[in-house]
């Protein structure tokens, strides 16, 4: 079985400073890993995904994540936060189509 | 639009009432998923369709929950005799590929239906 733990329920940063959202996963098989973002009253949007290719994955809006098998981590980063980044972020692990396990989410707040 | 749409966006039901939630996936997408997202939680898998076949319904919480996709496109999630614990946002997602393709395809999510059971 696979699962995901998002280590912070809430992260607050100032605009222009780096963002780090932490995710650890557990999986018996080689997983696919995803980060989704959810803005209020909008659908979940895929930021990036890892599927056993390059361990450093670049996504949309300047986000990137690094797959570290030894640490079972897939942390999401961005060098400089923008006000529009304020949203809920979900880390997701999957070992087969149709079996996606979401973390509990991290709410990102960006202060001006 | 070209995305996944869901209706209604908001539904208030009295306890014991039956509800039906609709999902229109992206045209041509083979896979369709339903998720339940409780307040402050991540989405949890309910059921999965590949075309019209319901291949996995292991996440449905009780036999009061029923989903169908009769023509392999639009799907309906029905909840009978709603209870307060059914209050949640119900998300639908679709994906271009089906099981067995060997590649995990991106799931495109709709905006969800917020169900409140009084």
Structural class estimated from helices and strands of chain A: mainly beta
Output the radius of gyration of chain B.
14 Å
Distance between the termini of chain B: 33 Å
The percent range for strand residues of chain A is over 45%
Outline the structure in words:
- The complex is a heterodimer of chains A (112) and B (118).
- Chain A has 112 residues and is mostly beta strands.
- In chain A, 0% of the residues lie in helices and 54% in strands.
- In chain A, the strands form 3 sheets. In chain A, strands 2, 5, 6, 10, 11 and 12 form a 6-stranded mixed beta sheet that branches. Chain A has a 4-stranded antiparallel beta sheet with strand order 3-9-8-7, with no helix packed on it.
- Chain B is 0% helix and 47% strand.
- Chain B is built from no helices and 11 strands.
- The mean pLDDT of chain B is 92.
- At the A-B interface, strand 6 and strand 11 of A face strand 4, strand 5, strand 9 and strand 10 of B.
Quick tags:
heterodimer; A: mainly beta; 12 strands; B: 118 residues; mainly beta; 0% helix; globular
């Amino acid at each position: 079985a696979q699962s995901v733990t998002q280590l912070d329920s809430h992260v607050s940063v100032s605009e222009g400073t780096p963002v780090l959202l932490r995710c650890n996963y557990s999986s018996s098989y080689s997983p696919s890993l995803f980060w989704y973002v959810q803005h209020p009253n909008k659908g979940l949007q895929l930021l990036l995904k890892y599927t056993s290719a390059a361990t450093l994955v670049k996504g949309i809006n300047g986000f990137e994540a690094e797959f570290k098998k030894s640490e079972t981590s897939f942390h999401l980063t961005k060098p400089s936060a923008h006000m529009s980044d304020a949203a809920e972020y979900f880390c997701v692990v999957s070992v087969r189509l149709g079996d996606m396990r979401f973390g509990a989410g991290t709410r990102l707040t960006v202060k001006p | 639009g070209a995305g996944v749409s869901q209706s209604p966006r908001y539904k208030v039901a009295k306890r014991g009432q039956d509800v039906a939630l609709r999902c229109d996936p992206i045209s041509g997408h083979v896979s369709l998923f339903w998720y339940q997202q409780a307040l402050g939680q991540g989405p949890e898998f309910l059921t999965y369709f590949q075309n019209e076949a319901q291949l996995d319904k292991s996440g449905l919480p009780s036999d009061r929950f029923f989903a169908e996709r009769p023509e392999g496109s639009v799907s309906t999630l029905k909840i009978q005799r709603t209870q307060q614990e059914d209050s949640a946002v119900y998300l639908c997602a679709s994906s271009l590929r089906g099981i067995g393709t060997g590649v995990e395809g991106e799931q495109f999510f709709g905006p969800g239906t917020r169900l409140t059971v009084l």
